Amino acid sequence: EPVIRVVGLGKSYETAAGLFPALKGVDLDIRPGEFIAIMGPSGSGKSTFMNLLGCLDTPTVGDYFLTGENVAQMDKDALALLRNRTLGFVFQGFNLLPRMSLQDNVALPLVYAGADRETRREKARELLAKVGLGNYADSLPNRISGGQQQRVAIARALVNEPRLILADEPTGNLDSHTSEEIMRLFKELNAEGITIVLVTHEPDIAEHCKRQVRFRDGVIVSDTLTSEAAA
Ligand code: ADP
Ligand code: ADP
């Protein structure tokens, strides 16, 4: 069973000039263990698509099944639970809280999940160690580099043990060397079985993924495997 199944998915926005179709009937299956780059020019519908996958927005038409569950038919609470259990999010801008230690940033999703203090501390420290920042647990985000901040954001995305990570331009604010290091980390996570869907403009970044799906004008125009798929 696919982790994600999208059937005839469409999204139109209300604008002053009328309805604007940003996504026009997209079909896509994403199976467990895939590592997919979502590509395409600015305005092609990538963010719209990712917002739908993350259940941050609702489609105008079509169906979205997340781990087999029809998202449109779930009530708000059930959907929130499914999202928290299934998805981890990583953003271009890291989105760390500046006044909180790295440990507390990583542990934040566990606060919402109702975990006790000691569990949160242990889990956050374990994940900071996993992303190579075990010695920085008590530091503030502004004391570390952008690449390190993105590692913290990835640790935070992992804290609820998601099956799937959705990453929107995760290397967009990083230099190429640091971007390569972040992609190496994603590859390790993928090798451990986590499915990854990652938006990028950069062909060099997309080459690290196993599959490349390209959008143009709200439709998928190509869907190909890379040499990584065989590796
Ligand atoms: P991408 O992420 O590929 O740059 P987007 O999904 O952000 O593309 O946008 C696709 C199209 O939909 C663009 O033409 C954009 O201007 C339009 N769009 C995106 N969000 C909105 C919105 N909230 N209201 C109106 N138009 C939007
Ligand atoms: P990206 O960096 O992915 O291309 P955009 O700059 O296209 O992102 O969009 C950033 C945010 O603004 C998104 O949440 C998108 O939905 C919204 N947006 C994009 N285009 C429009 C628009 N024409 N009207 C209103 N909101 C928009």
UniProtKB/TrEMBL annotation:
Report if keyword Nucleotide-binding is assigned. yes
Query: Does the entry feature the keyword Transmembrane helix, yes or no?
Result: no
InterPro entries the UniProt entry points to: AAA+_ATPase, ABC_transporter-like_ATP-bd, ABC_transporter-like_CS, ABC_transpr_LolD-like, MacB-like_ATP-bd, P-loop_NTPase
Which PROSITE patterns does its entry note?
A: ABC_TRANSPORTER_1, ABC_TRANSPORTER_2
Sample GO molecular function, one term: ATP binding
Pfam families found in the cross-reference section: ABC_tran
Domain ABC transporter span(s) in chain numbering? 4-229
**Keyword annotations from UniProtKB, A to Z:** ATP-binding, Cell membrane, Membrane, Nucleotide-binding, Transport
Q: Could you tell me which Gene3D superfamilies the record lists for this protein?
A: P-loop containing nucleotide triphosphate hydrolases
- Residue spans making up a coiled coil are none
SUPFAM superfamilies referenced in this protein's UniProt entry, alphabetically: P-loop containing nucleoside triphosphate hydrolases (SSF52540)
The protein's name in its UniProt record: ABC transporter ATP-binding protein
